[in-house]
Predict the 3D structure of the following.
Amino acid sequence: MITAAALQHAITAADWEALRPIIWIAGGALAVLLFDLCLPRGAHRISSVLLGVTSLVWAGGFLVRNYHTPYAAFGGAFLSDGFSVVFQGAIVLATLLSLLFVYTFEERISSAGAVALLLWAASGAMLMTGAGNLLILFLGLELLSLALYALCGMASRRAAREAALKYLLLSSMASAVMLYGMVLLFGVTGSVNFSAFLAPPPGNPLYLVALGLFYVGVAFKLGLVPFHIWMPDVFEGAPLPVTAFMSVATKAGMLAVLARIIYVATPAGLANKVLLPIWVVAALSMIIGNLAALSQSNLKRLLAYSGIGQIGYIVAAFAGATALGLRYALFYLLAYLFMTLGAFAVIAALSDQADEGARLVSYAGLAHRRPMLAAAMSFFLIGLAGLPPTVGFMGKLLLLSSVLNAGYISLAVLLIVGTAISIYAYAKIIRVMYAPMRHEVVAGAMSATWPLPWIAIAICSVAVLGLGLYPLVPSAVLPLVK
Amino acid sequence: MITALILGPILGGLLLFALPRTADAAARACGVVLALAALVVTLTGSTLPDESIAWLQRPFIANYHVGLGQGLGFWLVALLNLCTMCAIAVIKVPRVRDFTALMLLLEGSMAGVFLARDLLVFALFWDLMLLPVFLVLIGWCGHATAAWKYLIYNVLGGLTLLLATAAFGIAAGTTDVIGHGPIPVLTPTWAAWIFAGFAFAFLVKTPVWPFHGWMPETYVELPAPMVALVSGIQSKAGLYGFLVIAWVLFAEQMHAMVPVFGSLAVIGLVYGGCMALVQSDIKRVVAYSSLSHLGLILLAIMSGQPLALQGAIVYMLAHGLFNVALFLGLGFVEVREGTRVLSRLGGLGVSNPRLAGALIFAALAALGLPGLGGFSGELLILTGLYQAGDYWQTIVALLVIIVAAAYMLRLFQGTMQGPVSDDLPQRPDLSAVEVLALIPLAAMIVLLGVNPSVLSSGVEPSNAVIHALPLQKERA
Amino acid sequence: MTPYVSVAIYLGVATVASLAFCILPGLLAQPRPNATKEEAYECGVEPTSVVGGRFPVRFYLIAMLFVIFDVEAASFYPWAVQMHALRAFGLGEMVTFVVTLGIGYAFVWKKGGLQWR
């Protein structure tokens, strides 16, 4: 029994160091709210974005330092290892880029509230990446989800309300299922620590049930087939910055949890048996996600489906639980981040407050009207398709190598099949933009007023090209065992 | 310097977008100058050392390793730069600037394929080749089906190549193996599957029957300068792959598959010839004739007989030259008359004697007139096949060469001779630039025809690729 | 299994009791309805309209805000009990908590969330 006093003595400065990036971001959200109260009306939007960006950059600085000093904070409740730091970095980057699209919110939406909620969602996701036990995991998950429920509905269109309600109902259902799994895991092993799951009592069928329920929750939050039905609707309905955030940051948080479970909390003897469903689900996602992307006429929907496939590739890299696979999964996560958010940045650059530039028809002849945007979009889509000279190509190659190396040849073949299918989905958009115009289509709006999306486009383009030619794979990423 | 052969055209092509949108002549001039510069670098660069930069350490060693050498790669790159220069000079499409940029992009990526000494670099440029062609297909062509067919086939091929490359790297530990160094020993199962992946990619890209589904429509839809490059040089990428990758790294598997690929080649040879005979579209005629010729080259490659291999290399270059000339010539016809239908065309030779001359020259080279490049290649191949004991293949190939004469003459007669079609516009003859663009091609065709050994000085002994070939086919 | 026996007994008692409360009145009671008994409440003001109608969303907003800031008080209780043991650390935690909530409260106030328009 840990007394309060004992707990108090255990906490040192190093524990707070590990949490500092998260604290800065959550505190930044509070500052955003405060500034919003004090500043005059006109300055709300820019001050919120600037404050948010500042706190994220500041947190990023602490992350760089934490990367070199792995530490199990709060008695192993929060693990600040290279693994979680890279995931946290991805979340910070994704949030940062999403913040640049905030001006696409409607005028009447409080941008300070939106930015604060995005920051809190980010801190929730970051908490999940370092969670060393089920309690912290659930705390992070709920912090993330609650913020997102509100964020999804922050637009006056019907689709946004539909998205918010759908996400609330289905996601809390999934949370409940996952929670049930966690409770059973606790019941079986007598501990909430991930490390305790390495030695489940032999022959207890409840262990499998518990893991099954837990995985269902994870797969739902990751949007893996067959738990993906909510994703396209929610992605389409939610405001653009929220969709961008969800497509990467939410996934990164949950991927970290899945990876930690696979790498440090799965008993070696049972790994082949209990992880098989994960590989099957990953394979299904690669194929079905990309197949469904073929027939979409809304870019946000299309990116939702393609995201299902892309996350499937990343999960496939965990196959065999090799160190190589984890590193390449993280590398591909970064690749996916820059490619997807780059595509969202182009959509944001084409949006105005009346209309998000996500309908495929409004891209007809874009190459003739806005050649730079069309080129940027094509570049990111080529990357998502895994063609050179982008990070998508290099990432695919590394993923393939690690999957082959682990001996999962059928997964590698399915990865190729999924990629082949996805290329048509992306090529379709490129064709719409570049096909010769029969008559001048003058779609409304389509003029960016803020330079912010261009910053995002520039960052993403450089990263997609640079990482593609010189793959900077994070090396010290194996999770701490506590 | 060798890197400049790849990056020069690619970066130059991208820089073209800095020109104003309507600067057609300037874009064309820049393109010609860039290609000419690349040609000069190639011709003077045969002694340049390889360039290698470490790229990946894990999961396998891969280097950015490119080399020109003096072998097949050298000649193909020279051919590529020459043909690109000639093709860019005669671009006549809307939005010349963008089109030229894509031509240069294609040139650079193809140069990358032929210069790569590392399988990963090879795969990268192999997949990169896809983009410019696809962009031209969607941006300049009416029918979307051609673009989709092209994409479906070539994406499958390209991704299979990528998978095979990754598998090779994992199995062998390094991909820096093209044309140099010891040949990694793989376990038979791995080797078989990896070889299958490479072979599939090569068969699709060449294309070889029955993987040619994308070819006719792509050739018909692409504007002439682009299709000249695709049919003349990109088709050699697959054959090049068979020679320098399949024969060298997977000799055992190749031996096992020779009957299969040889049969495919013979079927393609006959099928292409017969189809070319009955096409009503002038570009389709050349598309199918190309399928037939490529079948012949593949047959020679599969025989593994030294003389046939020499012939294959001569014919690869000759085919590149006369196919570019043919497609450029047909492009002139198409641009002038606005139609490609053989039955509507006719009598152009009366008003356009220079065009007629160019076309008959290219057609004669294609049908194997002695003294021109096609003949020497065919002669070497047939002699080699005969010496290797492939008697019935030799006979079939001979018969198809007769068919070639028939369809080439039919093509020429249908467009240039016969009654003048009154409903078609009368346009002026070839301009000076257009004639100038064809002269280097014609000169090279004649040179290959009268003195094919000009290649062998470079190709034969010093070429690591041919050197490493297991030249004697084992006969049971 | 022993620790779960008490849980099982508790579950059993709860089930039996709740079932009994539902079923027994129907069996034992003598129904003697009159107008007053039929009302929604047997005391207080008589309802003026149908109870199942629609409410303005403001009710929910106010109710939710009330719950948020009211439940906050519940968190003080355990801390108050253990205040001496937790010392400065506990005080710090609680101050952070209150300040965070305070900022939220100020935000809601300034944005007009508490106004009944």
User: Anything to note?
Assistant: Residues 27 and 71 of chain C are 41 Å apart (CA to CA).
